[in-house]
Amino acid sequence: MITPATDPVSSLLKLIKDAARTLQAGYIEADGHLPSLDETEPHPLDRKLSTPEMQEAAQTLEGACAQLCATLTRPNHTVLNNLFMTGLEPNCARVALTFKIPDILQETPSGMHVTELSKRCGGVEPSKLARILRLLSAKHCFREVKRDVFANNRLSVQLLAANPLHSMGLHITEDTTEGASKLAETLADPEWGSSFEIGHSAWNKATGQPLPMFDYWAKTPGMEKYGERFGIGMLGWGTAVEATAVVSAYPWANLKADATVCDFGGGVGAMAIQLARAYPQLHLKLQDLPDRMVQAETVLWPAECPEAIEENRIEFKAFDFFVESPIPGCDVYYLKNILHAFSTQNCITILKGIRKVMKPDSRVLLHEYILQTAPDSSIDSESDLEKNAKADMQLKHAPWPLLGNYGQGRIRQYYLDVSLMVLMNSQERTLAEYSKLAEEAGLQFIKVWDFGDMGGVELCVRDAAI
What we know:
Layout: H1 8-31, H2 52-72, H3 75-84, H4 88-98, H5 101-105, E1 112-113, H6 114-120, H7 126-138, E2 143-146, E3 149-151, H8 164-180, H9 183-188, H10 202-207, H11 213-219, H12 224-240, H13 245-249, E4 260-264, H14 270-278, E5 283-288, H15 290-304, H16 306-310, E6 314-318, E7 332-336, H17 344-355, E8 363-368, E9 370-371, H18 384-392, H19 412-424, E10 429-430, H20 431-440, E11 443-451, E12 454-461
Parallel strand pairs: 4-5, 4-7, 5-6, 7-8, 9-10
Antiparallel strand pairs: 1-3, 2-3, 8-12, 11-12
């Protein structure tokens, strides 16, 4: 038995107490009250980026609560509840999303009996529907105001059809959940288990489709709606993970006057629009496939940021980053959630394409999740591992006795990592792995940035003055 030097339970309780007080104070300071789970109107803080203090408090609270429960409850209880049974939750959530139950319940804030709800859902068997909603209510999504009468709450209104998270939820509970059901069989497959080919994913195994998921959606008649749904869902994902933290956390304002920023593979430019609004001195270059550029130039930007077009602060240029390099000579090449979709060799190809057109003082900013793993304590020489371990010290580490990566408090990065394995046979990466990709492409690591839920890896031309 390991006897800890200090009492971890007392330390976890203190972390929970301090984090809860920080979050409570933040809500009250913003609007004078702490929102109840029963509320359905958003609190003002729900639409704002979290402060670093509240972000840290939320991660600590979630991590410490989960670790305390895992420490004090019976291990078989924890394994049964937290590992085996949770697979039912996405499927129950999918029922709520498919039948748009939150939208129906919005019409009766005090609650609706399941028999009426059943009629509105096309005749779903009411007792079965009640059991599904009861499970979700026990997870604090919906509330059962009295037996068989259900109402929305603070969590369930996030599933309204008008919220982009609705689309993301359908993608995750359908595509990801279906693919994950064949993860073990895919890993056991003699050919596919060790393959990193995009078409050898668990999703391919589950669906029987030979094409990669996105190609299947794009090339199969009638499947375009899945790609559109995913695009909408990514807006909800970006809001939930507070991706726009990069706008304030990275020193864009310190770039030279008239600096150029290339949003590489930026879709229709949702992030570039945020930069254009916040930093009108920047000259932005948006690059992606032709369809996205047409949509950006003719639909999104004229509606959302026409001043950038009128002032010639935005350039739209279609390209295929596996075939050609981006616009040359930009000060920053910004890549958000690009490399995690591709194999190591493809990532090197992408970065080499950028390297060819960089100026000596250009930078590459990778906006991705940065996985944290257990530290390697066996290093005894100035090796690549030791260099990477030193670089890893720039990452935020949780206070003792939490797991260094905050455990449940930052679990989303590990969910996404396995989701990418399931859907595209790709991955999130550690800082060491990003540094290795950079070296292979003629670049070098400079600094890691904390963007809250996600991170930034800044690169420059190898051996350039930093």
